[in-house]
Amino acid sequence: MIDLSGVIALLPLAGAGFGVGFLVGLTGVGGGALMTPLLISSFGVPPSIAVGTDLLYAAVTKTVGGWRHHVQENVDWQIVIRLAMGSLPASIILLAVIAYVPLDTDAMAAWIRYGLAFALPVSALAIVLYPVMMKAHANGNGSYEQPKRTAVTVLFGAGLGLLVTLTSVGAGAIGVVVLALLFPALPAKRIVGSDIAHAVPLTLVAGAGHLGLGHVDFGLLAALLVGSIPGILIGSRLAGVAPDWLLRPLLAITLCYAAYALLTK
Asked: The whole model's pTM is what?
C-alpha cells in the first residue's frame, strides 16, 4: 500500500500557499509579508529556513510577473538598474556577513524576528497608501523627462536589499510606494512593473545566497508553489469582486497582528 502520510503532511502548507497566493492575486501585494511570518508562527519553521524558502518562492513567482510587465513595456529599466546597483551588493554583503561571521543561530533568529517586526507594520502602512499613491499616477503618461535621482534610488535599493535579504519582506508594497514618491510623473503601471522587475534579481540573489547557507527546504517550497499558483490565478480572476477599501485595511491589520505574534510567540 502506498504511504501517503508525507503528502498529507504537506497539505496544510499547500493550503497556506493557496491562501497567500489568493490574497496576492486579489490585492496585488502581501506575498512575502504574509508567507514568512505565517511559516514561522503557525508552522514552526525556523526563521532562516522560512526566509530562504520564501525568497526562492518569490523569485519563481515574480519572474513570471516581471516577464509579463516587460512584454507590455511597463518596466523602466533605468530605474531597475539603479535600484539593483544598491540592492544586489547590499544583499551579497549581508549574506557574506551571515556566512563568515560566527553567528549564534538563536541570535540569527532574533534578528529575523525583529526585522520582521519592523518590516510588517511598514508594509501594512504601504498597503493602505498604495491605492492613494497609484491614483495620483493614474493619469501620468511619462512623456516628459523623469528626474534621475540616481543617488537616492541607489541608497533606497541598498536599504531594500538588506531588508529583503534578512526578512524576505519589502520588495512589494514598500518598493512601490517609495518609487511613487521618488518618481511622481511615472505612470502607475510602470512603477509596479519596475518594482516587480527589480524584485526578480534581488530575490534570486538573496534566495541563492540562503540556498548556499542551507536555508532552503525544497519540500516546503514545492508545497507552497502547488498551493500558491492556483491561488494567484483564482484571486486574479476575482480581483475587483471584493471592495478594495475593505481588503487593504484587513490585510494591513493582519500584517500588524503577524508582527505582534512573532514577538510574543
From this structure: 0.85
